[in-house]
Amino acid sequence: MIPQIRSADSLIRIYLFVSVIAIILLAFASPLFGESINEKQAPEIISTLNISESIDLPKCLDINGNYVYIMGRHIHSKNKGIEKVIVVVDISDPAEPEIIARTSVDNQIWDIKANGDYLYVLYWDYGTKTSGLYIFDISDPVNLNMISTKELFPHTCTKMVLDKNDMFIAGNRRSLLTETRIYRLSLDNPANPVIISRHFTDERSNRKHYYLPDYARKMVIQNDRLLIAGQDDIFKFVISEDDVVLVSITGNRLDYTDDMAVSFYGDGGDDYCTYISGRKIYTFANMEIDDDGKTQHPGGKGVYLAYSNITDKLPLEDKLKYRFKPFGTTFTPGVIEARQNLVCILGLDDDMTGKILFVDFKDPREPVMIGSCDLDGNPQAAEIRGNYIYVAVPMENFYIIKLPDIDIGFTQII
Length: 414
Known about the structure:
Elements: H1 2-29, H2 31-34, H3 37-41, E1 44-50, E2 57-64, E3 67-75, E4 82-90, E5 98-105, E6 108-115, E7 118-125, E8 130-137, E9 145-153, E10 156-163, E11 166-172, E12 180-186, E13 194-199, E14 218-222, E15 225-229, E16 233-239, E17 244-251, E18 256-264, E19 272-279, E20 288-289, E21 295-296, E22 301-308, H4 316-323, E23 331-339, E24 342-349, E25 354-360, E26 368-375, E27 381-385, E28 388-392, E29 397-402
């Protein structure tokens, strides 16, 4: 009888073991495990193009159709001269990008925008202390043709943005840390932009004026809304046919601002969210308690939801909590791009590895990292277009990265 009992006990154990294995296999075969959310969402590097022979220090880029225009500097090893260059990359096949053109210009370049058959390059002439535009005909991207040079501004201009038939340029009256002026130019004749209005602080002038305390980090335009982010504040303007009106100034309350990304949603121009990459030092927002019960201040490096209609109706104490909650303290953010709740953060890890982090701010109270990609260096220029983000890294490569597949939109928290 005893052997029979042992045999029955063994059969029970075998049955239980097989059942457990079956349950595990079934679980992995289910959509929850077999097609994991992470695999579905994961970003993917589609292609890498070495651009170091053409441009060493990319500063910014813009996309027009199937072409990316990268602006920056190239250092020549033989005579140690520095060349200011524009490189054109054909991205018609994202898996096989190709450099098709390259040209050089004489002066320091601050920004670059492509629109239709024209490329506008914002430059600074150290000799004359003036800024202006190089205008290229890019109807044939293989053969960049500079058609005119326009010396327009008696001081440094650093950022520009295009909208329909208008161009807006932000410049600094004295130096990079003084006031900023806004110029509006007509593009009715795109080959010959003309200044139609100026907006600046000048006590001797009867013109309407706005005081922007430092140089513009970024300019964004949507419908009739113009946003300018500076070191300390975000300025919102409403644009009409014959005027530019300042309607609000929002303090971002960071100690240092690296970059800003603005993403509009909804049908109007008032629904948007603003993400700031930067640092908030020694504040309630980034205090931590260590094992010994002492307060630590990691520095609050990260990305902050600085403005959003999503949190606009919250009580002040809750609004500040979402605005200044650091994403992380071991990653130093630099360039930032966003599409509504999907935020792409480019920078350096603690070991100085270049990275791009993909973060979902669907619930602004708890942003979630959904993927990352290692890069060959510290990325300096990036732009989202379609389902891809295009990234240029100094001394190394140009990347085309497929964005993660996530649900677009925000959780209602009010």
